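Blinded run. Sample ID left blank on purpose so nobody reads anything into the name before looking at the predicted structure. Input follows.
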Amino acid sequence: MDDRLKISVIIPVFNCEKYLGEAIQSVIDQTYQLYEIIVVNDGSTDKSSSVAKSFSINVKLFNKDNGGTATAINYGVKRSKGNFLAFLDADDIWLPEKLEKQAKYLIDHPDVDCVYCNAIQFISPELDEVEKVKLECPTNPMPATTAPAIMIRKESFKKVGSLNEGLYIGEFMDWYIRSQDAGLNQYILEDVLVKRRLHIANKSRTNIEDKRRAVLKIAHAAVVKRRESEK
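Blinded prediction complete.
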């Protein structure tokens, strides 16, 4: 297979030893096998690094000081060798045809910069009933414009620029808005290719007020930028 079609899969992880192995395995189980897995350990204090090391095949582990998801993804992108980029949260799972279907679409449509897909949410099975009732889990698949749902040409990613390392929450939302401002041509597959795990420690759950403020800040910055560009 042509090395120009290689995909760099970047997995940022911070204290997610419980789920990281399943995330990595979901990449190894892909039907599309021309990839590299880059795990960026963002200063974890648990055994996340050891979990990544246990996968000796196709896994490159990088350890760095804690700086947040944006810093970890940017760190991985700088060390990537593929011409396509894909990102997987350490607690989520890809369906086996995720890389194959998205790579095929980008190969067949050279004018498209990036392709997303549908995602479905699930409650992590190890939770007890008390914890499960605290989680709201929609059962219908939904179009996802999130980091685990994207595949993008590296050259297109560079047009938008790195993720904002000043954001601890909403870093990919900010990048997505900037990608639209940059005029990236995107497409969303109808296929369900991502499973988003719901659990008590989800970043979006444990920092609800911080997330609300981050969303407002990102939206305000986007409006200001667009108004300035229209002057």
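Unblinding after everyone has recorded impressions. Confidence is low (pLDDT under 50) at residues 205-209, 214-224.
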